[in-house]
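Issue: ligand-bound run for zinc ion - logging full I/O for the record.

Environment: standard queue, default settings, no custom constraints.

Inputs:
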Amino acid sequence: MAEQCTWCGTAVDADDGFRVAEPESERRAVFCRLEHVVPWIMQGAHWEPGRIVASGEPDDALGRCALCGDRLGDARVLVVRHRDHHRIGDAFCRIDHLLDWAKGGGRYKAAS
Ligand SMILES: [Zn+2]
Ligand SMILES: [Zn+2]
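Outputs:
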């Protein structure tokens, strides 16, 4: 079942797009592409209730912020990219760091 981008309303296929969540607050958002995370955060990040990983599954990626490398606390923000059957997770110590990361094009900006 397709979801809708939290920012622009475009249908997002189950094997495409980005899922963003605050595991501690059990709230989530869905994006058709990473660029839409940026205006969403700048407008105040309107979440929907829910989770993006099943309870008991890891929800902190590598345990460190993908931007600054700090150890994650309870208020971390998790981002999972869906690409076909791949699920690529990154986590951030706070939403500001997700914003900076997304502005910079995410982890693929330097991909060769
Ligand atoms: Zn969108
Ligand atoms: Zn950070």
